[in-house]
Amino acid sequence: MQGVSLTLPSLSAEFGISEKSVRYTTSSLFIGLCFGSFFWGIGSDIMGRRIAFNVTLLIASIFGTVSAWAATWGGVCFMYAVLGFGVGGNLPVDGALFLEFLPDASSSLLTLLSIWWPIGQLCSSLFAWYFIANWPAYKGWRYFVCAIGLITFAMFLVRFAIFQMLESPKFLLSQGRQSEAVAVVQGLAARNGRKTWLTEDILNEVVGDDDDEPVPMTTTPRRRQQRPTISHLVRTRLASFSANRIRPLFNTRKLAITTSLIWFCWATIGMGYPLFNAFLPQYFSHGSQPTDPSSTVPQLPPSTYRNYAITSLAGIPGSLIAAYAVEMRSPLLGRRGTLALSTFVSAVFLFLFVRLGTRSPTVQLIFSCIEAFAQNIMYGVLYAFTPEIFPAPVRGAGTGVASFLNRVMGLMAPIIAATVPGDGTTAPVYLSAGLILAAAVSVCAVPIETRGRQRL
Length: 456
What we know:
By secondary structure, this protein is mostly helical. The chain has 18 helices and no strands. Helices cover 69% and strands 0% of the residues.
């Protein structure tokens, strides 16, 4: 996903698209992200977490790789859209699945999981620095997307064949499949060399067994019910994509307020984040000399990819600090305090990037590094805080809708960046700062702090 922004200058050079118009390429990615987050977020509550865990990464890897052979700009946009459909489902589903396997005492590991975001961004920037900066425009970006696509496919093979993820026991319980949930817990204990007291009989005593009616001792056991038909499964799954999946998120006043504020936060960050980060390579190169003066749409100089790599590296400590800060009992930190503080700092340095960053490339690089540091804290906490708020039966729906709103607003970001008056290097960043500042205010109003609380 981060690599898409690095291909924009090369797409401009090969297909003759202006610097502002080529930003519509990012819109196609966000179209896929919108549909992917909504479909897989709610679908994981119906089909299970494990299916989405594997399939979404496979989709991203295949279409990310195939985009290297696109012959037109429209073809690239289509491939990026399907790539986004996979990535959009991967992000919310993986977080929910990881959270549901974690002991409550280790819930901060979900925040630490976000460290792979800046690491992935760093890897993509290094690959772009090597391929795009050293090959002609029509070759370099193709080698680049092919390389990171094949790496993603290798990760899918690891998920599917080597590290075989069990289905979430909380999902199984929410579906009334108690015996399977017990089997998962017992298998998890065996894999870790431990023993568990949990059996199906004990679980039935606690939650009851609604699936099986008592059978008299003098009768033969009841036959297993027949498998439902494909048409029945389709009707059931389509019916599940209704308001009934969303309504429980507003059952109480406190949960309704929290849901609304968190969704608003995801929406404002969804537009504010790409307005700056999706076009950061272009912001870095503004005013620089083209590598080929005869080209009407120049490529970015190698220093742009170097600066992007440095910025990516600066974001990695942010995820580490986020994992530590969310567990601190200071009233200013914890989940909510850390998220509000990092979001506010991010907004401040976005303003400074525009106001003072034009003085020199070095000042611009320093502000972008601080921005990356704060935003990685922000996203790391947001991805951990959000699924902890929602109860397990509708956790996929709650996080899926949040991610969907994030992508819808992200879809609008490149449209705004491509149509805003002027050269498009200041107004989008100012708007990004204002939106992220609004997100910081909304986080302060959230009435729930999940640190130290048992998840439902």
